[in-house]
Amino acid sequence: MALLEAKPGLSSNGTTTTSVFETGKYEVKSISVDSGDSSITHPPPKSLLIITPTKEGTYPVLLFLHGFALYNSFYSQLLTHIASHGYISIAPQLYNPKFPTASGYDEINSAADVTNWFPQGLQSLLPENVEADLTKLALAGHSRGGKAAFALKPGSYAQTSLTFSVLIGIDPVAGTSKAFQVPPVILTNREECFNLGIPVMVVGTGLGDNKANPIFCSCAPKGVNHEEFFKECKPTRGHMVATDYGHMDMLNDDPMGINGWFSGIACKKGSGSREIMRKCVGGIVVASIKAYVGKDTTDLKAIVDDPTIAPTTLDSVVLDEA
Asked: What CATH number should be reported for the domain holding residue 8?
């Protein structure tokens, strides 16, 4: 394997790039779809937020799984950034955040149901002359949704008819501690035990393990957070940590309602703006999809070669290639 660790300098082709961290060239449209919409021939099994380019063309697809007790709409600004680079971003509402009683198995099954619905139902919801390329499919998730993404890929808990080309965990969390993981338990504390069969990028936060106040526990505790997920992945795998930001800092600026308010007080926050964190996370997601779905590694390796091109400090930047 080849282990590429962060070092100051240029990318492998002698240039640096910041384009993935800025808004892309595509105008996008946001589409909200209700799972109970009887006007749709093949309604989705879960309500969806779709953010898609509007320019005529064929685009890869990103399935994005939200975090615990969060609305998919809380990620609209992040998903808009990703879609503006030429990706159809789809975030299902896996359960009602007001009553977050769904089990980990329910989450995984719901994500699989949405994936299996794509071939029959997705195309009819997209703008005219926009086509989804379901042979180019990426999977991502935040927090507990990140854990669900890791559990979905192997097919151990639910089967999908489509194949993902890359998995991106955004500050994934498996539970409140090693002893209290949300079932199914997937972390084993053994290095390189995940047999996912596709490249993985793990994006962590430097403040995720810090408590926001004495009342709440940390939102991304050591032992069940991004560090452990990365350690247990086999190459090809990547790891990048936004040092100065917290577990919820990639969400929208002002998530609405009681769940949005709670997301703002439950986790330690960074001192910088959420816009900067969204650009950072969005850029890493875009670079990872370009590398492993589009087979263009220029941007990803540029970040690894020179992490200072990111809009905020990146630590633990590693690309471990098989």
From this structure: 3.40.50.1820
